[in-house]
Amino acid sequence: MSTYALVIHGGAGTILKEDMTPQLEKAYEQGLNAALQAGYAVLENGGSAINAVKAAIVVLEDNVLFNAGRGAVFTKKGVQEMDAAIMDGNTLNAGAVAGVRNVRNPIVLATEVMLHSNHVFLSGKGANDFAIKQGVKLEPDEYFFSPFRYEQWKAIRDSDNYSLDHTNHHLEELLRDKKFGTVGAVACDADGNIAAATSTGGMTNKKYGRIGDSPVIGAGTYANNATCGISCTGHGEMFLRAVAAHDVSCLMEYKGFTLQEAMHEVVHKKLVAMNGEGGMIGVDAKGNIAMVFNSAGMYRAAKTSNGLFEIGIYGEQ
User: Fold this and answer.
1) Is residue 111 annotated as a catalytic residue, yes or no?
2) Which parts of the sequence bind substrate (predicted)?
């Protein structure tokens, strides 16, 4: 039996202690801990890495604080369009959805795509049709409405600007303030199987059906028992161009890098060279974990069967 481990993130970016109230800080920590415990309970009871990451993501999607599921941001049209992906490192099976609406838990739909569609990636209306066919829980628009997200969108909806995630500030500060709202989870179970999952509401005020790296296998999400499981959060365009998640796996497979070394190479060198801001979480088949980011902060948490337990928000001071 190998060390089992779960790592989660709730987004990265300009997350500074001076911008955070004690109440909000506590709420984020409680939200991360609830998701961590939900996923870890699956592993502790002998469950699979896939079920563990799905369980953790569902809790994050149901929490209005995070830009995924219920807390998804508004698009240019004033609606929510959500993306998600999940991958099984044992079989290399994967499922992903993009631009879905009214789906309570996009990660549940992505899992259905993986298991029951004979496809990997579904988008838009077709993905919603499949959700209905599979009996995936839908919610009305009101479920996804939060005054906080609405005010944030209202501040920039008449401009061509988009915002990377939550802020309460004025327009000029809004555009300077960068938070990449995504949630993710990676796990290694007691059998040494790895899984990764990512879910997001994307960018506030996004246009043209924009899709980031989160649902793209190899860019924002990747899992392979031979190497690692990775979930990314950051400026999606750069992570797409860097094929960031798969690049970590390649550095481990072809260059013999450790998980930590490979993630450091991608986050602090390759992405920095492209002005790519954000971070990623990772796990390998031995239960080693890593949480690496080049932004000011990253909502993150980890728990392993050899006693590690950590919840963090800010960067190293």
Assistant:
1) no
2) 210-213, 233-236
